[in-house]
Amino acid sequence: MRARGGLLSKAWKFVSAHARVIAKGLAMRPRPVRAYVPYPAPILLFAWSLVPRGLRPRRIVADAFISLFDTVVNDRGLLRPADWRARILWRIERRAYGIADAVIVDTDQNAEFYASLFRLPRELFIAVPLATNEREFTLSPPPVHRGACNVLFVGTLVPLHGISTIVDAAKLLAGRQDIRFTIVGTGQQAEILESALRAGAANMTWEREWKTPAQLAFCIRQADICLGVFGGGPKTQRVCPYKVYAYASMGRPIITARTAWLERAAARFGQMPFTAVTAADAEALAAEIARLADDEALRGVMASRASEFYGAVLANRITFTALRASILGEANP
User: Is residue 135 in a domain?
Assistant: First the structure.
């Protein structure tokens, strides 16, 4: 009953907050020249789509960081695509993005996917890197090695993270006393970790309570190797998860899946910034972890490369420039 009450309270806050914003937006005089609608944007945009165009801001830029339809239907599998609720959700989201002048996503691959999924023009979608907490996630020297190599994964354990691949890789490395895994976070596929720990996975530590940015930065500073995403689904191919931003900004060697996003980003950067393995391949992941754990010099090279990549491709100054151009309606530099 307490949980249900909490959900109802959150739902009411969600609805009332949107209602207040919609009312303020309609009451503004003169009509706003530009409006930036942060994530989650579809509810507000859909409401705006129901009023005459002359009452809306003249230029609307929406943040579509995560598609509601894609998350609920394709990624989490909570609804089947043919379900009437899924069809309604698709129509709401398509109509919402359709009234915007620009829709912000985080990668070129997601821009192409959204355009195809919602049957909207590709030029509507603009790829802008995520903003990173550069106050906490700052470049730091590698940890002083005191025995076991610390392999860190941070995440909410959604399917695209591939936690089963990470757990299987840890099992393959169970005989290596000099390699330990630290998992931070919990979520949809927590049962996979729970089962592994019940089965006696002695080389794994799980900190399931979520961390503040400062605490998370501390965990990354203690890591020798950081793990990205390894899920076998199509969404893995399109994303650069926030954990990778944090790892790279702090200068840590990263192992992640070889994805369409990474291949294009590496071509733009001029070299592969991370160690990449085939998605959903536990043996390949275990082999790369062992290779980096055995080669401190290589870890140093990959740490420097990750830091350089962050500065050249993902840093906040790049995000700000692209976001400002999108809101003002300028051509991206």
Answer: no
Give the Cα separation of 119 and 170 in Å (integer). Answer: 42
Q: Are residues 122 and 153 in the same domain?
A: no
Using an 8 Å Cβ cutoff, are 44 and 24 in contact?
no
Residue-wise pLDDT tens digits, 276-290: 999 999 999 999 999
DSSP class of residue 73 equals: I
**pLDDT tens digits along 70-124:** 988 987 788 999 999 999 999 999 999 999 999 999 999 999 999 999 999 999 9
Percentages of the chain per state (helix, strand, coil), in multiples of 5: 50, 15, 35
Residue 201 · residue 171 · CB < 8 Å: yes
Give CA separation, 126 vs 41, 186, 261, 309, 316, in Å: 15, 31, 15, 21, 16
The label of the residue with tokens 């740490």 reads: 303
**Domain that residue 105 falls in:** 2-129+320-328
Q: Are 289 and 219 found together in one domain?
A: yes
CATH number at residue 121: 3.40.50
- The answer to whether the pTM exceeds 0.85 is yes
Same domain, 125 and 95: yes
Question: Helices 108-118 and 260-269: crossing angle, nearest 10°?
Answer: 140
